[in-house]
Amino acid sequence: MTAATLAAAAPQPLIRPRAILFDWDNTLVDSWTTIHEALNAVMEAMEKPLWSLGETKERVRLSLRESFPLHFGDRWEEAREVYLEAFRAIHLDRLRPLPGRIELLRGLIANGIFLGVVSNKTGALLRHEADRIGWSGLFGSIVGAGDAARDKPNAAPVALALEGSGVEPGEAVWLVGDTGIDMECAYNSGCIPILLGSDATGEEFLGWAPRLVFPDAASLFQFVQGL
Hints:
Blueprint: H1 3-9, E1 19-22, E2 29-30, H2 32-45, H3 53-59, H4 64-72, H5 76-94, E3 96-97, H6 101-110, E4 114-122, H7 123-132, E5 141-145, H8 156-162, E6 173-177, H9 180-189, E7 192-196, E8 212-214, H10 217-226
Parallel strand pairs: 1-4, 1-6, 4-5, 6-7, 7-8
Antiparallel strand pairs: 2-3
Helix pairs in contact: 2-5, 4-5, 6-10
């Protein structure tokens, strides 16, 4: 389904966004292999079956404090420390921006749009990564897991990311991500759900359909410019 088709099916015409909040992992930067390796370090330590990369991509959606109790029960805090130690050891060296993302961000800023990040990556690690690739100055806010009272898909991190921006959650705010959790977060916060670099055919999008789907950063930017 194309962006134009989705726009035509929207309940009301889209307005030019005043703020765009981006997911981080696999929306702006490529981090699947890093997440996968750190998770399998946890699985091995917890004596659980290792995951394939495909299983990691299918299952990783929630923050550590939301997902690890489901996987590891009473040992979830121990598992979290194993994961964080493994992740910290490799994530900065392997961090790579996805194609076209820096051009997208700079173009949106030039158009006067407030930019923020809302991620389920632990906040300190998230901001360290943004610093490492020189992107911290591009965002008015960078909100990670643990920074707000609840994590995505709850609306709390969206409200925190918009504090001080002069923009309230609503139709003037787009939430751009690559998973159903991102779309659900947009619905929960009253913002526009935008899917980038993926498609909306999976079961995770049932009930949380994106308003628009863009295959790449260039098509997203061109659409915004046309509003």
